[in-house]
Amino acid sequence: MYFNCHYTSRFREIAICAVYAAVGFGLAFVLSTYVLFGVVVQGYSMYSTIPPQSRVYGLRVPFMRGQHARGDIVIMTSPVPQRFSEPAIKRIVGLPGEEIATINGIVHINGTPFDEGYLTESIQGDFASITIPCGHFFVMGDNRNNSRDSRYWGPICASTIIGRIFMHR
Questions:
Q1: In Å, what is the CA distance from 38 to each residue of 35, 41, 98, 141?
Q2: Residue whose C-alpha is closest to residue 75's, from 46, 47, 111, 107
Q3: Residue 112: which domain range?
Q4: pTM of the model
Q5: Which helix (H) or strand (E) holds 163?
Q6: 28, part of any domain
Q7: Tens digits of per-residue pLDDT, 111-154?
Q8: Given this model, what pLDDT does residue 10 score?
Q9: What's residue 6's pLDDT?
Q10: Cβ atoms within 10 Å, residue 50
């Protein structure tokens, strides 16, 4: 039987390209499903740090290095799923075991004023001191006067955090 070498090498090139494409699509699927995420911000609670309709990208919890830290912007499941089904994006302000309060529009952690240079306006209204339970975080939106956050729902459980935002545009 006679085979034309031209057709055999062409078939091989197509097969190799198909394998690379399948591996690429598979890798992209695994990364986007289990490692990374991208979401479009719907609300104003993180304005002006992250304006509405911005796209944010993050790393899912199992792949994050280190623990959650004060200042991290995280995405979490809705703390009030009966009212809002969409995940929420907030900044971690208080850590487990800390005492947090707002006095004269300034967040105090363990009795010390906390400098939040990313805020564009002072907080209207104070909230009484609470101690954050073990395994929980106190989260707030950067647009403090237009944000439903831990001041309303209380500290969030660490298990509700989906991931940490590392980029937005």
A1: 11, 10, 31, 19
A2: 46
A3: 37-168
A4: 0.83
A5: strand 161-168
A6: no
A7: 999 999 888 888 888 999 999 999 999 999 999 999 999 999 99
A8: 83
A9: 58
A10: 23
Which two three-digit tokens encode residue 135? Answer: 């395994």
Q: Does 78 fall in a domain?
A: yes
How many domains are contained in the chain?
1
Percent share of the chain, pLDDT over 90? 61
Q: Report the candidate in 167, 150, 165 with the shortest Cα–Cα distance to residue 74.
A: 165
Q: One of 48, 85, 90, 147 is an active-site residue; which one? A: 90
Residue pair 45/141 in contact (Cβ under 8 Å)? The answer is yes
Structure token digits, residue 29: 């699927």
DSSP run (H or E) holding 139: strand 136-140
pLDDT number for residue 82: 77
What residue type is assigned to position 144 of the chain?
Answer: R
Find the CATH number of the domain harbouring 108.
2.10.109.10
Q: Is residue 97 part of a domain?
A: yes
Catalytic residue among 45, 54, 122, 159: 45
Q: Is 54 a catalytic residue?
A: no
32 is a domain residue: no
Catalytic residue flag (residue 85): no
The model's pLDDT over 43-65, given as tens digits with 9 standing for 90+, comes to: 899 998 999 999 999 998 766 66
